[in-house]
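Folding problem:
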Amino acid sequence: MELNYGTYLELSKLLDCQHVRSEPEEHDELLFIIIHQTYELWFKQLMHEFDKVERDLSGNDLYGAIHTFKRMRTIFKVLVGQMDILETMTPMSFTSFRDRLDTSSGFQSIQFRIFEYRLGYKREKMMSFFGPADHGYQALQAAFEGRTLTDFFVDFLGQRGVDLPIEVRERDVKKQIEPNAAVQKGLLRLYKTEPDLAILFELMTDFDEGIQEWRYRHVKLVERTIGAKKGTGGSLGVDFLKQSLFLPTFPDLWAMRHEL
């Protein structure tokens, strides 16, 4: 088959993946499907960028890391912008096809759980909602047991002369990341003596803020759409989503802000 725009992007497959379940068809269901499929594509791209930025950090590639964090932050601006589109769907519009979702829920997104694990938000209980038969389960298990973005950042700081205590260098990667005074002291020195590094640190803070902004917008979208109801498929709804609000990926960059 001749390679052209359609065959290169496999548009025949891509555009045949949107199947509404409502009968008669509810107008907003197609929007709902496309928005969430688009999120999954962006999550795939973010995982691709994570692979690169981890190599950048471990390889002491400052400018590579700056470029990659800038791209990831920009992707999150797009993800937040998609909320504006989804919010044009009224609660009544969603209710008109919600029962067709059956047990499906965004709660079941393996890619997003991998994303959370790689950021360091490791809730082991989330593994119980998935099984070996689920597509992507092995990647999910590897993300839970593997190093986080912060652990690769620690590699970078060590190569930049930060004296890292053993509890930071040899921490249990399955545990929640905790701020550390020694790391903050090293960061402060680098902020004040290495302007190029300060650019990276601010981009990382921007990225972290972007994630928190997206989480907030997501919570408010769900809250205005279903209120205090359970999520689709019996998922835990707004109260569960609020648990992850304002959790930093890089806690040391936030804990030292008053020192700058």
User: Anything to note?
Assistant: The chain is about 65% helix and 0% strand.
